[in-house]
Amino acid sequence: MAGPKLHITGAACTGATTLGRHLAEALGVPLLDTDDFYWRPTDPPFTDKRPAAARIALMQEAMGEDGWIISGSIDGWGDPLLVGADLIVFLTAPTAMRLARLKARERRRFGERIAPGGDMEGVHANFLVWASQYDDTGFPGRSRLRHETWLAEQTVPVLRLDARQPPDRLAAEVLARLAEMGYGAGGEPKENAT
């Protein structure tokens, strides 16, 4: 039976991909991280965007029909991916926490490459500035205001979660909501669900 179709989103480093991994394992569905489709593979990474139509086509091919989880942000370009979605999970966390997570993650991923003099120093510095502006209502990029506007336009139910909680607790909350929506413990639709 088909599993649920979820989109997990929020500001950078709210833990959408981490939560997505927990849920994908629990539900037995594929996880699609938008960064893997949004950016062409380059070195240094995250410097060459794919056109939106190409991103969407690649993601639709990878999604299949038997349930999926999309982690990351698709607002502004990926609405066709949500056709048939069951739930949007919107994660929030304080800016200071997100930036600390981001710095730690980037150090793990890239080490000395993001240090002063490293080949990714500029990319990293720009990413930090970009991520720090999420709560700025005048910021034209991915922002809380843009996310809230986009969420208000969706017909898919939205579950808002505080990403200060550990991933296993967040996953339990999502699984509980799916159970309320008629999905069983493994994510499959219950036989009598409508």
TrEMBL record:
One of its GO terms (molecular function) is kinase activity. Keywords: Kinase, Transferase. InterPro entries: Cytidylate_Kinase-2, P-loop_NTPase. The lineage of its organism: Bacteria, Pseudomonadati, Pseudomonadota, Alphaproteobacteria, Rhodobacterales. Coiled coil: none annotated. It comes from the Bacteria. Transmembrane segments: none annotated. This is Adenylate kinase. The keyword Cell wall biogenesis/degradation does not apply.
